[in-house]
């Protein structure tokens, strides 16, 4: 996958207008939209047929963006997160799970659009799409834009919970 895939003016425009996009993330294809836009988040849950009680991972471009979710980290917790970020590890903090992706061009996109909710590109209980053709079978015309990053064989991010005492619980390897 090309590193510059996220430097796409149409992609930025669609996301800024609260659109829903299927695109490669730093791990697998995701169905993404603005995490702080309630209608967009609801639309993604509806398209995926996802249980509304099941949280989704939120991609952030910078650790400071956690403040937009009223999450203030102690210096100790920031130091712990530096061991995992940027990288393919999602961290549960309060009710949300966040990931600071490694590719700089993806982080740059996130700084332009704001945090993006990014569950895997599939309908509930089916395997994540490995390419755009599979994603189109799942979602058809229900999304506003598809960004083709070729075939992706990667797996979902590692998921950990950072507890208040600074200990870590691995939820998904």
Q: What this model shows, in words?
A:
The protein is α/β, with parallel strands linked by helices. The protein has helices at 9-16, 38-48, 75-82, 104-113, 132-139; strands spanning 21-24, 29-34, 57-59, 89-93, 96-99, 116-117, 145-146, 158-162, 168-172. It has a single domain (3-165), classed as DHBP synthase (Alpha-Beta Complex), CATH 3.90.870.10. Strands 7-1-2-6-3-5-4-8-9 form a nine-stranded mixed sheet, with helices on both faces.
Total number of beta strands: 9
Which CATH C-level class is it?
Alpha Beta
> How are the strands ordered across the major sheet?
7-1-2-6-3-5-4-8-9
Annotated CATH topology: DHBP synthase
Task: Give the gist of this structure.
It is built from five helices and nine strands; from the N terminus they run H-E-E-H-E-H-E-E-H-E-H-E-E-E. With 173 residues, it is an alpha/beta fold.
Question: In terms of topology, how is this protein built?
Answer:
Elements: H1 9-16, E1 21-24, E2 29-34, H2 38-48, E3 57-59, H3 75-82, E4 89-93, E5 96-99, H4 104-113, E6 116-117, H5 132-139, E7 145-146, E8 158-162, E9 168-172
Parallel strand pairs: 1-7, 3-5, 4-8
Antiparallel strand pairs: 1-2, 2-6, 3-6, 4-5, 8-9
Keywords:
single chain, 173 residues, alpha/beta, DHBP synthase, nine-stranded mixed beta sheet, 5 helices, 26% helix
């Amino acid at each position: 996958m090309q590193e510059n895939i996220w430097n796409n003016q149409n992609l930025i425009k669609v996301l800024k207008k609260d659109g829903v996009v299927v695109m490669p993330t730093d791990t697998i294809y995701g169905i993404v939209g603005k995490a702080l836009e309630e209608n967009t988040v609801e639309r993604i849950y509806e398209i995926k047929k996802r249980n509304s009680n099941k949280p989704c991972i939120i991609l952030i471009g910078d650790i400071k963006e956690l403040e937009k979710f009223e999450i203030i980290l102690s210096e100790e917790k920031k130091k712990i997160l530096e061991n995992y970020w940027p990288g393919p590890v999602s961290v549960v903090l309060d009710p949300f799970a966040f990931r600071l992706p490694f590719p700089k061009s993806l982080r740059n996109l996130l700084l332009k659009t704001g945090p993006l909710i990014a569950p895997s590109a599939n309908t509930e209980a089916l395997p994540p799409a490995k390419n755009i053709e599979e994603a189109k079978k799942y979602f058809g015309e229900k999304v506003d834009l598809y960004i083709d990053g070729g075939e992706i064989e990667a797996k979902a991010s590692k998921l950990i919970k950072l507890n208040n005492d600074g200990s870590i619980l691995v939820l998904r390897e």
